[in-house]
Amino acid sequence: MMVxxxxxxxxxxxxxxxxxxxxxxxxGIALWESDEIEKMGSVANQLMLRRHPEPITTFxxxxxxxxxxxxxTYCRFCAFYRRPGHEEGYVLSNExxxxxxxxxxxxxxxxxxxxxxxNPDLPFSYYTNLLREIKKRFxxxxxxxxxxxxxxxxxxxxxxxxKEVIQExxxxxxxxxxxxxxxxxxxxxxxKISRLKGSWRQWMDVMQTxxxxxxxxxxxxxxxxxxxxxERIKHLLRIRQAQDETKGFLAFIVWTFxxxxxxxxxxxxxxxEYLKAVAxxxxxxxxxxxxxxxxVTMGPEIGKLSLHYGCNDFGSTMIEENVVSAAGTAxxxxxxxxxxxxxxAGKIPAQRNTKYEILRVFAEGQMAEKDFIMQN
Length: 376
Ligand code: SF4
Prior knowledge:
By secondary structure, the chain is of the alpha/beta class.
Protein backbone atom coordinates (compact mmCIF):
# COMPACT_ATOMS: atom_id res chain seq x y z
CA MET A 1 0.00 0.00 0.00
CA MET A 2 2.82 2.33 1.02
CA VAL A 3 4.65 1.57 -2.25
CA UNK A 4 1.55 2.33 -4.30
CA UNK A 5 1.10 5.67 -2.51
CA UNK A 6 4.70 6.63 -3.12
CA UNK A 7 4.42 5.71 -6.81
CA UNK A 8 1.24 7.72 -7.13
CA UNK A 9 2.97 10.68 -5.50
CA UNK A 10 5.87 10.55 -7.96
CA UNK A 11 3.47 10.17 -10.89
CA UNK A 12 1.52 13.20 -9.75
CA UNK A 13 4.68 15.32 -9.31
CA UNK A 14 5.91 14.34 -12.77
CA UNK A 15 2.49 15.05 -14.26
CA UNK A 16 2.55 18.53 -12.74
CA UNK A 17 6.00 19.13 -14.19
CA UNK A 18 4.75 18.04 -17.62
CA UNK A 19 1.80 20.38 -17.40
CA UNK A 20 4.22 23.26 -16.89
CA UNK A 21 3.90 23.67 -13.14
CA UNK A 22 6.97 24.71 -11.21
CA UNK A 23 8.14 22.16 -8.64
CA UNK A 24 9.14 23.11 -5.10
CA UNK A 25 11.51 21.84 -2.41
CA UNK A 26 9.25 19.03 -1.21
CA UNK A 27 8.64 17.82 -4.77
CA GLY A 28 12.35 17.77 -5.53
CA ILE A 29 13.14 15.83 -2.36
CA ALA A 30 10.40 13.27 -3.14
CA LEU A 31 11.84 12.77 -6.63
CA TRP A 32 15.37 12.29 -5.35
CA GLU A 33 14.26 9.84 -2.69
CA SER A 34 12.46 7.76 -5.31
CA ASP A 35 13.96 5.02 -7.46
CA GLU A 36 11.69 5.71 -10.43
CA ILE A 37 14.64 6.77 -12.54
CA GLU A 38 13.19 5.69 -15.89
CA LYS A 39 9.97 7.63 -15.30
CA MET A 40 11.93 10.75 -14.37
CA GLY A 41 14.18 10.25 -17.39
CA SER A 42 11.18 9.98 -19.68
CA VAL A 43 9.65 13.21 -18.35
CA ALA A 44 13.00 15.02 -18.49
CA ASN A 45 13.38 13.84 -22.08
CA GLN A 46 9.93 15.16 -22.98
CA LEU A 47 10.70 18.52 -21.40
CA MET A 48 14.01 18.64 -23.29
CA LEU A 49 12.22 17.86 -26.59
CA ARG A 50 9.83 20.76 -26.06
CA ARG A 51 12.81 23.11 -26.14
CA HIS A 52 14.84 21.16 -28.69
CA PRO A 53 12.40 19.33 -30.98
CA GLU A 54 14.98 18.40 -33.61
CA PRO A 55 16.79 15.08 -33.00
CA ILE A 56 20.08 16.98 -32.82
CA THR A 57 22.69 16.75 -30.08
CA THR A 58 25.23 19.54 -30.12
CA PHE A 59 28.85 19.53 -29.02
CA UNK A 60 31.59 22.12 -28.98
CA UNK A 61 35.18 21.72 -30.10
CA UNK A 62 37.20 23.24 -27.33
CA UNK A 63 40.04 22.76 -24.93
CA UNK A 64 40.65 23.20 -21.25
CA UNK A 65 43.84 25.05 -20.48
CA UNK A 66 44.87 24.74 -16.85
CA UNK A 67 47.24 27.72 -16.79
CA UNK A 68 48.31 27.19 -13.15
CA UNK A 69 47.77 24.56 -10.46
CA UNK A 70 48.92 26.83 -7.62
CA UNK A 71 46.06 27.40 -5.23
CA UNK A 72 45.52 28.64 -1.70
CA THR A 73 41.95 27.45 -1.30
CA TYR A 74 42.84 23.84 -0.41
CA CYS A 75 39.48 22.20 -1.18
CA ARG A 76 39.38 18.75 0.36
CA PHE A 77 37.95 17.16 -2.76
CA CYS A 78 40.59 18.54 -5.16
CA ALA A 79 43.48 16.42 -6.45
CA PHE A 80 44.68 19.09 -8.88
CA TYR A 81 46.06 21.92 -6.78
CA ARG A 82 49.51 22.49 -5.26
CA ARG A 83 49.94 24.96 -2.43
CA PRO A 84 51.97 28.13 -3.10
CA GLY A 85 55.71 27.32 -2.94
CA HIS A 86 55.20 23.59 -3.68
CA GLU A 87 57.83 22.14 -6.01
CA GLU A 88 55.15 20.73 -8.34
CA GLY A 89 53.36 24.06 -8.67
CA TYR A 90 53.41 25.54 -12.18
CA VAL A 91 52.29 28.50 -14.24
CA LEU A 92 52.27 27.85 -17.97
CA SER A 93 54.24 30.31 -20.08
CA ASN A 94 52.23 32.47 -22.46
CA GLU A 95 53.93 30.70 -25.36
CA UNK A 96 52.71 27.31 -24.08
CA UNK A 97 49.18 28.70 -23.79
CA UNK A 98 49.29 30.17 -27.32
CA UNK A 99 50.51 26.81 -28.61
CA UNK A 100 47.57 24.99 -27.00
CA UNK A 101 45.12 27.49 -28.46
CA UNK A 102 46.72 27.14 -31.90
CA UNK A 103 46.32 23.36 -31.73
CA UNK A 104 42.65 23.85 -30.83
CA UNK A 105 42.06 26.26 -33.70
CA UNK A 106 43.81 23.83 -36.06
CA UNK A 107 41.16 21.16 -35.43
CA UNK A 108 38.24 23.57 -35.85
CA UNK A 109 37.99 24.47 -32.15
CA UNK A 110 36.15 27.64 -31.10
CA UNK A 111 36.36 27.73 -27.29
CA UNK A 112 39.07 27.89 -24.65
CA UNK A 113 38.14 27.10 -21.08
CA UNK A 114 41.07 28.53 -19.14
CA UNK A 115 41.00 27.62 -15.49
CA UNK A 116 43.52 27.36 -12.69
CA UNK A 117 43.72 27.54 -8.93
CA UNK A 118 43.37 30.69 -6.85
CA ASN A 119 47.00 31.66 -7.28
CA PRO A 120 47.91 34.46 -4.84
CA ASP A 121 51.21 35.16 -6.63
CA LEU A 122 49.71 36.26 -9.94
CA PRO A 123 48.91 39.98 -10.24
CA PHE A 124 45.62 40.98 -11.87
CA SER A 125 47.58 42.37 -14.83
CA TYR A 126 48.71 38.77 -15.60
CA TYR A 127 45.13 37.89 -16.59
CA THR A 128 44.25 41.05 -18.49
CA ASN A 129 47.57 41.07 -20.40
CA LEU A 130 47.19 37.38 -21.23
CA LEU A 131 43.64 37.86 -22.52
CA ARG A 132 44.74 40.79 -24.68
CA GLU A 133 47.64 38.82 -26.13
CA ILE A 134 45.34 35.86 -26.84
CA LYS A 135 42.73 38.02 -28.59
CA LYS A 136 45.46 39.73 -30.64
CA ARG A 137 46.61 36.34 -31.94
CA PHE A 138 43.25 34.51 -32.02
CA UNK A 139 40.54 37.15 -32.50
CA UNK A 140 37.75 34.64 -33.12
CA UNK A 141 38.42 32.26 -30.24
CA UNK A 142 35.78 32.42 -27.50
CA UNK A 143 37.36 32.80 -24.06
CA UNK A 144 35.07 30.94 -21.65
CA UNK A 145 37.35 31.23 -18.66
CA UNK A 146 37.99 31.83 -14.94
CA UNK A 147 35.56 30.48 -12.37
CA UNK A 148 34.08 32.61 -9.56
CA UNK A 149 36.79 31.51 -7.06
CA UNK A 150 39.52 32.83 -9.39
CA UNK A 151 37.62 36.07 -9.94
CA UNK A 152 37.27 36.55 -6.18
CA UNK A 153 41.04 35.98 -5.82
CA UNK A 154 41.70 38.57 -8.54
CA UNK A 155 39.54 40.99 -6.60
CA UNK A 156 41.50 40.30 -3.38
CA UNK A 157 44.89 40.64 -5.08
CA UNK A 158 44.00 43.82 -6.97
CA UNK A 159 41.79 45.57 -4.43
CA UNK A 160 39.16 46.05 -7.15
CA UNK A 161 35.52 45.14 -6.65
CA UNK A 162 34.09 41.99 -8.28
CA LYS A 163 32.25 44.21 -10.72
CA GLU A 164 35.41 46.09 -11.67
CA VAL A 165 37.36 42.85 -12.09
CA ILE A 166 34.75 41.35 -14.42
CA GLN A 167 34.44 44.61 -16.35
CA GLU A 168 38.22 44.76 -16.88
CA UNK A 169 38.41 41.09 -17.84
CA UNK A 170 35.61 41.66 -20.33
CA UNK A 171 37.39 44.64 -21.85
CA UNK A 172 40.57 42.57 -22.13
CA UNK A 173 38.79 39.76 -24.03
CA UNK A 174 36.89 37.51 -21.63
CA UNK A 175 33.68 36.38 -23.35
CA UNK A 176 31.90 34.24 -20.76
CA UNK A 177 32.43 32.56 -17.38
CA UNK A 178 32.23 28.82 -16.67
CA UNK A 179 30.23 27.66 -13.68
CA UNK A 180 32.96 25.76 -11.86
CA UNK A 181 33.22 25.88 -8.09
CA UNK A 182 29.48 25.79 -7.43
CA UNK A 183 29.79 22.24 -6.07
CA UNK A 184 26.76 22.36 -3.75
CA UNK A 185 25.34 25.83 -3.21
CA UNK A 186 24.70 25.49 0.49
CA UNK A 187 27.02 26.69 3.23
CA UNK A 188 26.86 23.72 5.63
CA UNK A 189 28.50 21.37 3.13
CA UNK A 190 30.78 24.10 1.70
CA UNK A 191 32.24 24.64 5.17
CA LYS A 192 33.05 20.94 5.34
CA ILE A 193 34.66 20.48 1.94
CA SER A 194 35.99 23.87 0.86
CA ARG A 195 36.03 26.14 3.87
CA LEU A 196 38.06 28.87 2.16
CA LYS A 197 36.12 28.96 -1.08
CA GLY A 198 33.42 31.34 0.03
CA SER A 199 29.72 31.08 0.58
CA TRP A 200 27.16 29.99 -1.99
CA ARG A 201 25.97 33.59 -2.08
CA GLN A 202 29.43 34.77 -3.12
CA TRP A 203 29.48 32.29 -6.04
CA MET A 204 26.06 33.50 -7.10
CA ASP A 205 27.00 37.17 -6.72
CA VAL A 206 29.93 36.73 -9.12
CA MET A 207 27.64 35.04 -11.64
CA GLN A 208 24.86 37.59 -11.34
CA THR A 209 27.32 40.49 -11.53
CA UNK A 210 28.59 39.00 -14.79
CA UNK A 211 25.02 38.61 -16.08
CA UNK A 212 24.25 42.23 -15.25
CA UNK A 213 27.34 43.27 -17.20
CA UNK A 214 25.97 41.42 -20.22
CA UNK A 215 28.13 38.33 -19.91
CA UNK A 216 26.66 34.85 -19.98
CA UNK A 217 27.82 32.01 -17.74
CA UNK A 218 27.06 28.37 -17.10
CA UNK A 219 26.00 26.74 -13.84
CA UNK A 220 27.21 23.46 -12.42
CA UNK A 221 26.49 21.06 -9.59
CA UNK A 222 28.63 18.28 -8.19
CA UNK A 223 26.97 15.61 -6.07
CA UNK A 224 28.52 13.00 -3.80
CA UNK A 225 30.30 15.06 -1.11
CA UNK A 226 28.02 13.84 1.68
CA UNK A 227 25.44 16.58 1.09
CA UNK A 228 21.80 15.93 1.94
CA UNK A 229 19.10 15.60 -0.68
CA UNK A 230 17.57 18.79 0.67
CA GLU A 231 20.86 20.61 0.04
CA ARG A 232 20.89 19.36 -3.56
CA ILE A 233 17.39 20.65 -4.17
CA LYS A 234 18.19 23.98 -2.50
CA HIS A 235 21.10 24.28 -4.92
CA LEU A 236 18.68 23.90 -7.82
CA LEU A 237 16.15 26.35 -6.39
CA ARG A 238 18.89 28.94 -5.86
CA ILE A 239 20.06 28.60 -9.45
CA ARG A 240 16.46 28.81 -10.68
CA GLN A 241 15.75 31.94 -8.67
CA ALA A 242 18.96 33.63 -9.86
CA GLN A 243 18.07 32.72 -13.45
CA ASP A 244 14.65 34.33 -13.02
CA GLU A 245 16.43 37.49 -11.88
CA THR A 246 19.36 37.85 -14.28
CA LYS A 247 18.76 35.25 -17.03
CA GLY A 248 22.44 34.72 -17.80
CA PHE A 249 22.88 30.96 -17.34
CA LEU A 250 23.22 29.47 -20.80
CA ALA A 251 23.61 25.88 -19.66
CA PHE A 252 23.67 23.58 -16.67
CA ILE A 253 26.08 20.71 -16.04
CA VAL A 254 25.91 18.16 -13.23
CA TRP A 255 28.43 15.44 -12.45
CA THR A 256 29.45 13.20 -9.56
CA PHE A 257 32.42 13.70 -7.24
CA UNK A 258 35.48 11.64 -8.21
CA UNK A 259 37.15 10.71 -4.92
CA UNK A 260 40.46 9.13 -6.04
CA UNK A 261 43.65 10.94 -4.93
CA UNK A 262 41.73 13.39 -2.76
CA UNK A 263 41.55 13.88 1.02
CA UNK A 264 37.80 13.41 1.02
CA UNK A 265 37.09 9.74 1.49
CA UNK A 266 33.74 8.97 -0.05
CA UNK A 267 32.28 6.19 -2.15
CA UNK A 268 31.91 7.00 -5.83
CA UNK A 269 28.23 7.42 -6.68
CA UNK A 270 26.85 4.84 -9.13
CA UNK A 271 25.91 5.84 -12.70
CA UNK A 272 22.18 5.56 -11.92
CA GLU A 273 22.55 8.35 -9.40
CA TYR A 274 24.07 10.54 -12.09
CA LEU A 275 21.23 9.80 -14.52
CA LYS A 276 18.69 10.52 -11.80
CA ALA A 277 20.45 13.83 -11.10
CA VAL A 278 20.41 14.81 -14.78
CA ALA A 279 16.68 14.09 -15.01
CA UNK A 280 15.77 15.93 -11.79
CA UNK A 281 17.88 18.95 -12.76
CA UNK A 282 16.11 19.20 -16.14
CA UNK A 283 12.71 18.84 -14.46
CA UNK A 284 13.37 21.38 -11.67
CA UNK A 285 15.26 23.98 -13.71
CA UNK A 286 12.46 25.06 -15.99
CA UNK A 287 14.21 28.26 -17.01
CA UNK A 288 17.50 26.87 -18.33
CA UNK A 289 17.69 25.95 -21.99
CA UNK A 290 20.69 23.66 -22.29
CA UNK A 291 21.90 20.67 -20.28
CA UNK A 292 25.30 19.21 -20.98
CA UNK A 293 26.16 15.57 -20.67
CA UNK A 294 29.14 15.03 -18.39
CA UNK A 295 31.07 12.38 -20.26
CA VAL A 296 34.41 13.46 -18.75
CA THR A 297 33.50 12.01 -15.40
CA MET A 298 30.83 9.47 -16.27
CA GLY A 299 32.38 7.93 -19.38
CA PRO A 300 31.08 7.82 -22.96
CA GLU A 301 28.48 5.10 -22.40
CA ILE A 302 26.70 6.91 -19.57
CA GLY A 303 27.19 10.12 -21.52
CA LYS A 304 25.19 8.58 -24.36
CA LEU A 305 22.42 7.47 -21.99
CA SER A 306 22.17 10.96 -20.50
CA LEU A 307 20.99 12.19 -23.93
CA HIS A 308 17.74 10.36 -23.13
CA TYR A 309 17.52 11.76 -19.60
CA GLY A 310 17.24 15.45 -20.41
CA CYS A 311 20.59 16.45 -21.94
CA ASN A 312 20.61 18.10 -25.36
CA ASP A 313 24.34 18.68 -25.55
CA PHE A 314 27.45 16.52 -25.42
CA GLY A 315 29.70 19.20 -23.97
CA SER A 316 33.21 19.79 -25.18
CA THR A 317 35.57 17.49 -27.02
CA MET A 318 38.22 18.82 -24.66
CA ILE A 319 41.61 17.28 -25.07
CA GLU A 320 42.88 18.33 -21.69
CA GLU A 321 41.02 17.94 -18.48
CA ASN A 322 43.67 18.04 -15.81
CA VAL A 323 41.37 18.82 -12.90
CA VAL A 324 39.14 15.79 -13.25
CA SER A 325 41.86 13.48 -14.54
CA ALA A 326 44.04 14.31 -11.53
CA ALA A 327 41.27 12.70 -9.47
CA GLY A 328 41.64 9.44 -11.36
CA THR A 329 39.12 9.87 -14.14
CA ALA A 330 40.41 10.24 -17.66
CA UNK A 331 37.75 9.62 -20.25
CA UNK A 332 39.06 11.30 -23.37
CA UNK A 333 36.62 12.08 -26.13
CA UNK A 334 37.74 13.63 -29.39
CA UNK A 335 35.74 15.11 -32.26
CA UNK A 336 35.05 11.95 -34.21
CA UNK A 337 34.39 9.83 -31.15
CA UNK A 338 31.87 12.43 -29.96
CA UNK A 339 30.19 12.33 -33.38
CA UNK A 340 30.10 8.55 -33.30
CA UNK A 341 28.69 8.35 -29.75
CA UNK A 342 25.97 10.90 -30.53
CA UNK A 343 24.95 8.82 -33.54
CA UNK A 344 24.98 5.65 -31.43
CA ALA A 345 22.54 7.41 -29.09
CA GLY A 346 20.19 7.86 -32.06
CA LYS A 347 20.84 11.58 -32.52
CA ILE A 348 22.27 13.79 -35.25
CA PRO A 349 25.58 15.41 -34.21
CA ALA A 350 26.07 19.15 -34.71
CA GLN A 351 28.99 21.38 -33.81
CA ARG A 352 27.97 24.52 -31.90
CA ASN A 353 29.70 27.59 -30.53
CA THR A 354 29.68 28.73 -26.88
CA LYS A 355 26.42 30.63 -27.46
CA TYR A 356 24.79 27.35 -28.54
CA GLU A 357 24.47 28.52 -32.15
CA ILE A 358 24.84 25.59 -34.54
CA LEU A 359 27.88 25.91 -36.77
CA ARG A 360 27.62 22.67 -38.67
CA VAL A 361 25.35 19.63 -38.77
CA PHE A 362 27.12 16.36 -39.58
CA ALA A 363 25.19 14.50 -42.28
CA GLU A 364 24.97 10.73 -42.15
CA GLY A 365 28.42 9.17 -42.43
CA GLN A 366 30.16 12.55 -42.35
CA MET A 367 33.05 12.95 -39.89
CA ALA A 368 35.28 15.83 -38.81
CA GLU A 369 38.13 16.40 -41.26
CA LYS A 370 40.56 17.22 -38.48
CA ASP A 371 40.80 15.74 -35.05
CA PHE A 372 42.65 15.80 -31.78
CA ILE A 373 45.09 13.03 -31.06
CA MET A 374 44.06 11.04 -28.03
CA GLN A 375 46.51 11.47 -25.19
CA ASN A 376 45.91 8.18 -23.46
S1 SF4 B 1 38.92 23.06 -6.59
FE1 SF4 B 1 39.82 24.92 -7.41
S2 SF4 B 1 39.82 26.32 -5.69
FE2 SF4 B 1 39.57 24.27 -4.82
S3 SF4 B 1 41.68 23.57 -4.35
FE3 SF4 B 1 41.17 22.83 -6.42
S4 SF4 B 1 42.00 24.39 -7.76
FE4 SF4 B 1 41.84 25.31 -5.73
